[in-house]
What we know:
single chain
Amino acid sequence: xxxxxxxxxxxxxxxxxxxxxxxxxxxxxxxxxxxxxxxxxxxxxxxxxxxxxxxxxxxxxxxxxxxxxxxxxxxxxxxxxxxxxxxxxxxxxxxxxxxxxxxxxxxxxxxxxxxxxxxxxxxxxxxxxxxxxxxxxxxxxxxxxxxxxxxxxxxxxxxxxxxxxxxxxxxxxxxxxxxxxxxxxxxxxxxxxxxxxxxxxxxxxxxxxxxxxxxxxxxxxxxxxxxxxxxxxxxxxxxxxxxxxxxxxxxxxxxxxxxxxxxxxxxxxxxxxxxxxxxxxxxxxxxxxxxxxxxxxxxx
Length: 300
């Protein structure tokens, strides 16, 4: 049932995105900009920008709701009497204060054996920090505090918005260049076949260019993970942050990477150079090495 629910929500959100953007384009009078006689580059870029950025920001706006629905995150009542939940709320509150943030994020727990936590939300003031039940089962409080400090740093750095901007720009340029190249290819075949050649070429080029664009996004994502680790060390202490990473090393088989958008503290990639190039997270050994190599804690 959980898989069926995720598939349904995925389809529903994508239909919402397509419908919304189609309406926006219609209202603005923006068309594709590509005709059999040539390309209106300004119109084409506007078309691609609306699709690329629009889809990314609609997904960001719905990120908190989708996290709750897809992952089954249950927000903690601020008046809870559960000792574990009280500790979690108080720890996040302390970390938020250390990070200089004025708004307490929503904090929730989801039932899963995986070892993970993530932060999401459209703005710093409307963020969600969620942890799995498996995290509590396999980490002590110091290690969990390190994990939470990592997630709070993502919020403080505005990583959700930054990643959305980057992904939207990449999406727009992928669409833009795929259509320009595809139009050029279609001009070298018979006129009656140009429409089909253009459509197929656009489809293939978008796949190839998306792959290249993903490498750029993954590189930036790895960089932001190093920054979040440094922030975690600054707000919770280097020992707690490195302890959390070491604990994660011992639970690699308990990590679910099926929800890439919600894997802020998960393991990604592998031993090969290619897998590391496509990874959204640096290798754990490298993350630990970087933290331990900084002697002066004030540099975090």
